[in-house]
C-alpha cells in the first residue's frame, strides 16, 4: 500500500525544487497554472541536453567511431531510463515527435496492416469497431476517424455525462463483439478524470480487442506501470514531464510492435533493401526512420532522473492536495461551473470551469492581469465541450512546483471575474 509522505517532507521538496526552475525566479509575481499544456524545465534537464550537445553530439547508430559510440550510448541510456520509469522494456519504447505522433504511428500502422498486409492479425475489416470516449483529446480521436474511413471500420464512443465525465458502464454499453480497439485517456486534459484503466483493459481482453492509452496527463503526475496496467499501446510527451519539446514516446507490447507495419520508412529502419523490397529491423528501430531526436532524448532521460529524485508517490500526494484545493476554490464561487468530478472525488490537479456570462478568453485575460497563467479554449476537445453546451472553458493545472498559495491566488482572482465584467448583476 502507498503511504502519503509527511507534509513537511512535501514542503521541503517543493521549496528545493522551485529553485531549479529559472522561469519561476524570472517571474516571481506569476502563478504558472498551465502545466497540462506544457511543463517548465528544471536546470538539470537544460544542463544535461546542453552538455551532451557541447561534448558528445554525433549521429547515432551510424558508423563505428568513438564519437558515434558515445552518442549512441547516451541515446539508448535515455531509452532505458524512460522505459524503466513507465514499467516497460527498452525495446517497447519508440521515440516519436510527441504523443500525437505516437498515436498516429499506431493508427497508420493499423491502416497499412488492413490495406497492404491484409493477412495481418492486426488488420481491421469493414464493420469492425474502434471505440473511444466523447472526452478524448483530438489527438486521440482524429487518427481513429481517419483509420475508420480508410478501412471501413466503424467509430463508436462512450458518451459523457452532464459533468463531462464518462463511465466504465458507458464504455461497456458502447462496446460489442466487433470492437477491435479501445483508445482512451488515462487522465482527461479537461475534466481531470482518472480513468479505470485496469477495468478498460479487462473489457478489451474479454472482447479480443487492443487498447491504446493516452498517457500524456498521467505519466508526468502519477506512478505509472504500463505493463502492470495491461494496455497494449500507450503514448506520452516529453514536454509535459519537464523534458524538451520535439520528443515523445510510444509504448507497445513487444510482440505487437514487431507485428505492426512501420508508419514511416527510410534510413535506420531496415536490415536489407533491394530495388523492389525491404526487410525491417525489430522494434523500436523499425519505427525510427531518419535522423533521431538525440539531444531531446538525453533531455528526457534527465527529466526522468529529476522526477525519480522527487519521487512519483510524493508528486502524486502533492498534486492530490492541490486538486482538492482547486476544486474547493472553484466550488465556492457563485456563477462558476466546475467541469469534471465534484469536490471530494478523485481527480488529477486539473480544473476547468465555465464562468456564467463571461467568455473563457476574457476570463483568461483577467486572470493573466492578476498574475495567474491558465489555458483557455476548447483544449483540443471540441466534442466534449459541445456535449457540455459550451464552446470553451478556462483551465488551471498544477505540477510539482505549484504551491497552495498559487492555487489560492487563482481562486481569489476567479472570484473577481463576474463582478469585473458586470456579469453578476
Task: Outline the structure in words.
Its cofactor is pyridoxal 5'-phosphate. It comes from Microbacterium rhizomatis. Residues 32-410 form the Aminotransferase class V domain. The protein has 2 domains: 7-42 and 311-420, Aspartate Aminotransferase, domain 1; 48-308, Type I PLP-dependent aspartate aminotransferase-like (Major domain) (Aspartate Aminotransferase, domain 2), CATH 3.40.640. Helices cover 41% and strands 15% of the residues. The strands form 4 sheets. Strands 2-8-7-6-5-3-4 form a 7-stranded mixed beta sheet, with helices on both faces. The protein has a 4-stranded antiparallel beta sheet with strand order 11-12-15-14, with helices on one face. It has helices spanning 7-18, 22-26, 43-55, 66-85, 99-115, 142-151, 168-174, 197-207, 226-229, 254-259, 294-310, 312-331, 360-369, 382-388, 404-420, and strands at 31-32, 93-96, 129-133, 154-158, 179-185, 210-214, 233-237, 248-252, 270-273, 278-280, 336-339, 350-355, 372-373, 375-377, 393-397. It is of the alpha/beta class and 425 residues long.
